[in-house]
Amino acid sequence: MESPSQALIELLGVVAYGELAGFFRIAADAELAPSMAESIRMAELADIEFRHYSLISAHISSFGVEPEEAMAPFAAAFDGYHERTKPADWFEGLVKAYVGDSIATDFNLEIATLLPEDSRAVILKTADSTSHIEFAVSTLMSGFALDSRLRGRLALWARRLVGEAIAQAQYLAAEHEGLFQLINGTANSSAVGEESNEVPGLDLGRAFIRLTEKHTHRMQRLGLAV
User: Fold this and answer.
1) Of the residues 3, 12, 56, 190, which has the maximum number of CB atoms within 10 A of its CB?
2) With helix as H, strand as E and coil as C, how does the chain read?
3) Confidence (pTM)
4) pLDDT in tens, 98-117
5) 55-85 pLDDT per residue, tens
6) Is residue 185, in this structure, part of any structural domain at all?
7) What's the domain range around 153?
8) What is the pLDDT of residue 195?
């Protein structure tokens, strides 16, 4: 197998650590659950995140690269994001799962279009966040029915989360050369293993507009102002 480029390994590394950090975060949030049943449900969601990480980790290993090595440059950024957005209670944790994981999935779908077929297929396998979304929505709606003041507080929390998430994505794209080249279309064909001489980039401005529009639709589903 041809040696992978810096761009491809960086992209796989950032997605892999995002899934691993998501696993740690959801597992920790399970402790905030008000009942054993809800705690178990959160643990099941954490397991989904870990299985996603395992898929990407195995793909990185198939290139002869240690997954830990690929993920290491991104650990501080993700850990900082999760520290800054640590939920204060069960409902904030649910909103973070709903908003944060959905934005991460949307971003992964955007960047998957830049990858060769085998890597794209792996990323797409991790893009199913239906379990996260439906569980979070149903539980949050039940909470709103019991406490009308909850909507306002969580709307502000969701706004903060999306701002932090997009700022982090912009930072990662700007600070890592391989990601920057791949996203902006300045990587050559060898960067991602394509046969053609040109690798189309991602219009980052339009991509973030699409991410924001999808976030708005998710908030509207919950009846939260954005």
Assistant:
1) 56
2) CCCCCHHHHHHHHHHHHHHHHHHHHHHHHHHHCCCHHHHHHHHHHHHHHHHHHHHHHHHHHCCCCCHHHHHHHHHHHHHHHHHHCCCCCHHHHHHHHHHHHHHHHHHHHHHHCCCCHHHHHHHHHCCCCHHHHHHHHHHHHHHHHHCCCHHHHHHHHHHHHHHHHHHHHHHHHHHCHHHHHHHHCCCEHHHCCCCCCECCCCCHHHHHHHHHHHHHHHHHHHCCCC
3) 0.83
4) 888 888 888 888 888 888 88
5) 999 999 999 999 999 999 999 988 999 899 9
6) no
7) 6-176+202-222
8) 44
pLDDT band of residue 133 (cuts 50, 70, 90) is confident
Does any domain span residue 186? no
Query: Residue 15 is part of a domain; what is its CATH number?
Result: 1.20.1260.10
Amino acid at 226: V
Question: Residue 1: inside a domain, yes or no?
Answer: no
Residue 194 domain-assigned? no
Report the domain count for the chain.
1
**Residue count of the chain:** 226
